[in-house]
């Protein structure tokens, strides 16, 4: 079997067009023996922008503007801090009226090309119990 010559960096980049730039640079310089990513690199903090908290009156006004069947979503978002997908994914068993608690166990998932469906929350920390205000 004939020996193959090592591929040039240009040939490697044509065969692997989706490699990140750092890995392509490593390919050009020398064979990669370890990950070129430095574990000491940290991403910059993500700014969350300014947040405006509505007053109780603004929350009540918004709830009154919605159809009656959707008014509770405003209170769950404002009072319990639930996200829209979590609110729309709630079932009757997720609300304990006696102790005034809301259990977040699932969410409404909307994926491209599929009908919306109820599924689990994304992470284990998203599953939580919130005290109703």
TrEMBL record:
Pfam families: Phage_integrase (PF00589). Residues 52-133 form the Tyr recombinase domain. The lineage of its organism: Bacteria, Bacillati, Actinomycetota, Actinomycetes, Micromonosporales. InterPro entries: DNA_brk_join_enz, Integrase-like_cat_sf, Integrase_catalytic. This is Phage integrase family protein. Keywords: DNA recombination. The keyword Signal does not apply. One of its GO terms (molecular function) is DNA binding. One of its GO terms (biological process) is DNA recombination. PROSITE patterns: TYR_RECOMBINASE. Residues 1-49 are annotated as: Disordered.
